[in-house]
Amino acid sequence: MCPTGTSYQTVPKSNLRSAFEVLDADGDGKISYDDLRTFYGGFSGPETSSEDVIGSMISVADSNKNGYVEYEEFEKVLNGRKKGKKNGRIGVMEDAFRVMDKDGDGKVGHEDLKSYLSWAGFEACDEDVKAMIRLGGGDENGGVTFEGLLKILAV
Questions:
Q1: Which end of the chain has fewer CB atoms < 10 Å from its terminal CB, N or C?
Q2: Strand boundaries in 13-84, DSSP class E
Q3: Roughly what angle, to the nearest 10 degrees, separates helices 33-41 and 51-61?
């Protein structure tokens, strides 16, 4: 269940690869504890970037127990979530969405997205951010839902 209250079945693979690359901060092909700490630390307070929370995220997805989340493990976690069922796995993209949604309104707005892009090292003017929001099916005033963010990341 995403923050907007809607359910989804699976996320298209192209969206998963884009999401994986966003979380793999050092670009080494695997998500590490440090990658998640860097990602979450840029957006939230200590409660989300705590060692316990990040350690739990890695533990849930790290099926081969090597301390990293490779793409195949990442894909299994996200595609393993079936509509209407909660299987105890952490939805990494849903978590990323919640982190970007600083005001907690269930949408990533203009300032939320612009802040994220800046943190991630992407230069984006206001017009670029507005275009991304429109691409995700949102409007300039309300922002985009979780599904809209997945559309933006797929580009």
A1: C
A2: 30-31, 69-70
A3: 130
CA atoms of 54 and 17, how far apart (whole Å): 20
Q: Which residue's structure tokens are 């963010």? A: 149
Nearest residue to 128 (alpha-carbon basis) of 153, 110, 143, 116: 110
Mean pLDDT of the chain: 74
Residue corresponding to tokens 């699976």: 10
Contact between residue 9 and residue 25 where contact means Cβ atoms under 8 Å apart: no
- Is 39 strand, coil or helix? helix
Phi, psi of 123 (to 5 degrees): -80, 125
Which two structure tokens, joined as six digits, stand for 26? Answer: 């050092």
What gap in Å lies between CA 69 and CA 57, rounded to an integer? 9
Which amino acid is residue 90, in one-letter code?
Answer: I
Q: pLDDT, tens digit, for every residue of 11-53? A: 444 567 888 888 898 999 999 988 888 877 665 444 444 677 7
